[in-house]
Each structure stands twice: as structure tokens, then as C-alpha cells.
# Entry
Amino acid sequence: MASLHPRTQLSKESVFSHMSRLAAQHGAINLGQGFPSNPPPNFLLEAARRAIGTVDQYTPPIGLPRLREAIAEDLAVVPENVVVTAGGTEALHALAESLYGPGDEVVMFEPYFDVYIPQTRIAGAEPVLVPMRLTDRWEVDLPALERAIGVRTQALLLTSPYNPTGSVFSHAEAEQIVALARKHDLWIISDEVYDELYFNQPPIKLRELAPERVFTVGSAGKRLEATGWRIGWIVTPPGLAPEVAGMRQWSSFCSAAPLQAAVAEALPAARKEGFYQHLRESYGQRKDLLEQGLKSLGLKTFSPAGTYFLTAILPDLEAETLLRDGQVAVIPGSAFYIHNPAPRGLFRFAFCKPASEIERAIELLQTYLERWRLS
Ligand SMILES: Cc1ncc(COP(=O)(O)O)c(C=O)c1O
# Structure
């Protein structure tokens, strides 16, 4: 009997979808999967309504020209280096297909964002994981990063702001990472989908330090609170965009045309209306609410510098039991580790949810912890 390729072992349901499904089944508060609970801004929705019926056919695989121009303007790059993709996920996939293959290694940090491992393997390459140090905060281990680089290393796959840790590279770290990439002649894939979601200083854009070797990944879904629209982008080093776009044409060919047109209008509107500032303020308040709530329960938290995720230690709890018995869905740290053990009791909380749900989750957690401590 014919069978599917062994590669389909990679097709397992992600822990994020799994926890969301269980949360819906059990009526639990879902602080697991990272999708906003509020609708996208009106200026985006209205632009999409205008575009449907007007911009409806295939666009070039590299993207609708006006969207490439809007992205370039927003990021202060040239449109020739911009490729539009179906979200950050397809951008990362197109880069995996374009940059490495069998026999190559790709160095990344652990905990890692879930798509990095299967995408690297689908391209035939091997992920090499360097653990982040967890003290009072998440720290990059630069000597360990250099030790992980070998003759087969083709690329560094980096994230800042970082999901799940919420950490961002300091200027010194970014410079040292770029120096390593230059010394070993490596590509850098810089996943910057949370580039506008920070709480202190704006994160460093790695391409500004090494435009000749950095591919930046971005996401309109993350920026404009429309994760289901699947519009993202890649900024490539000079001259490489046509080949990368040529690779993505074999998967989705192009992203949804009217939504590309809507995002082209929305990117300048978001700047003009101070939308990202509003986003940062709103998420900053919800981050504080969650963090203070968890601290008031005596739990150890690691304050994020960006993203809408917060990591915390809930010793000896099990995520599915907490969901079933405590009615709160969170992601277990083990979901972000494959080579090294996850720190004991590590969990990721998403705070892109209404304040009322965060407050309720803290109450439920309190009740659950009280019961659990007495048992
Ligand atoms: C670090 C990181 N990169 C990429 C993505 C994927 O972005 P998109 O939803 O645009 O595919 C996510 C989504 O959660 C993410 O957290």
C-alpha cells in the first residue's frame, strides 16, 4: 500500500492549535496562542473593503508594486529588495528553501519559535540549537553561539523581539552576532515580526548593521492585528529579491491581492495615526496587569522587552491539567525546546487578550494554586 512520505511526521498539530482547541472545548480562558482578540483597525478594514472587487487577480509573486513601495518606505529600504509573502511564516519558509539544503546546518537559539525546526528540516538542513541562559532574565550566550558554528553552518536564524522570551538584542549583542556572521561568512535570517511591539527602546534592525547578509522577515498580521490575513514580507540583501520571490511562486504564487492593496494603504496610515504607539501603550498595560497578577501569586516572571508574550515559572504544574481543572490555557515551556531540557516549570502566557480575561485568568490561577497547594 502506498504511504505518505516520512516527512509528514512533521505534520503533527502544533501545541498552540492543540491548546486553543482544548481551551474552546473546556471553556477555558486562552492565554496560549498569540492572536489578538480585538478586530483590526478601521483604516485597514475600510481599505480592504475598497480593494475587493477592484484588485482581485494574481499579482506578481514578488508582490503588488504599491505594497512593495509602502513596505520599502516604512522600513527605509528600496522596493527592489522587498518580497511580499503569505505572512512571516511563508517568508521564513521561502528563505529556508532559498538559503540552505541537505548537509547544511542552521544555528538558532533555544527556546525557539515552533516553525523554525520543521521548516529547516523540510529544506533538508539540520537545526543546531544554542540554549539561552535563564537567570533573572533571558540572556544570549555568545560564546556558545560561536561554538555552535561549524563548517556546515549556512545561516543564523535569529529573532528580536523574541517569541517566547520577549527579549530583544542589545546593541552590543547585535554587533557581536553580526561580527560572527561576517567572520564565518554566514547568512542571517532576522525574524522581526514584532518590530513595532516593544516597551522600551525600539529593537535594533540587524540589516542596518549588515545589509549584505541579513534577510529581514516582517508581518502585517502582527503589526496590524490581522494575523489571519497572511500578508508578510522579506527585505533581502541587494539583488536577491527576484530569486527568493521565484522560490515562493512555487507555493502560494502570490498573497491575497485585495489584502495586499489594503496593507499598502494601511502601512502609511498606521504611522500617520500613531497606531503602533497606541498598540504599545495598550499591550504595555496588559503586560503590567498580567505580570503584577502573577507576581501577586508568588510566581517568578521574566518581564518582556517586546512581543505580547511573557514567560513565568509555575513549578510542578502541567499545562493540560491546568487547562482542564483550572480553566486557564497557557503554553508549556517544553513546546519551545527540542535539544535541551526546558527550565523546570516554564510557561508562556500571551497577553494579547482583553484586560478582563487577564484578570479572570489570574483569579482562576489563584483558586487553582490554592487548591493544588492544599492537596
Ligand atoms: C517569532 C515569530 N515569527 C514568525 C511568526 C509568524 O508570523 P505570521 O503570523 O505573519 O505568519 C510568528 C507568529 O506567531 C512569530 O511569533
Remarks:
- The chain is about 40% helix and 15% strand.
- The chain has two domains: 6-38+275-374, 42-272.
- The CA atoms of residues 152 and 188 lie 15 Å apart.
